[in-house]
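Handout, page 2. Input:
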Amino acid sequence: MGIGGIVITIINKLATQLNRRDEEPNIELAHELVNKNDHEGIEEVIQNLFNKDKGIQQDCMKVAYEIGEMKPELISEYALIFIDLLKSRNNRLVWGAMTALCNIALVASETIMDHIELLFSTVKTGSVITVDKGVLTLGKLASVNKQNNERIFPFLLTHLATCRSKEIPQHSESTIIAVTGDNKEQFLAVLKNRENELTAPQLKRVKKVYKILEVD
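Output:
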């Protein structure tokens, strides 16, 4: 039995409960919850991030961040839950939580900024997806205001100066949203310093970043 039948309804629509190996049922559920502005249903999804069944946990994380991509304000109040899940031992929950934070970064920036050190440490130690989403999350947060930018941009510069060369194009694209008149030259200096490490296709992507910033 579920609470008022809601839990059962939500769980029954998840991919693992339908014996599906694709994510389509989870995406459909996210669309349904967004279209109905179903706050109760979303609350049940969030509660089941802590279900003992890992399959249900992971399905609900997928539903949650898909909701965040479509309508971030519907899950922004759960920012602290996603932040807490960055500490999970389940890697899929960690990168899912970072994806959710990425999707709500602009509407929940104050809450997330209170835990910025955890985001920094997660980016330093996370899996490829976690790092990719983490850099984009930091770029978004740094774009919100000058105070955020001054706190975050030095970390992003250090990351771009030290990350694997194959990550430079994507991570420079993720960081560009936070580039300002004050930090533009530092950003460009880091990228130009690493140009000789890049393959031709990678360098082509970085040069598109230069073009956005109107630099040759």
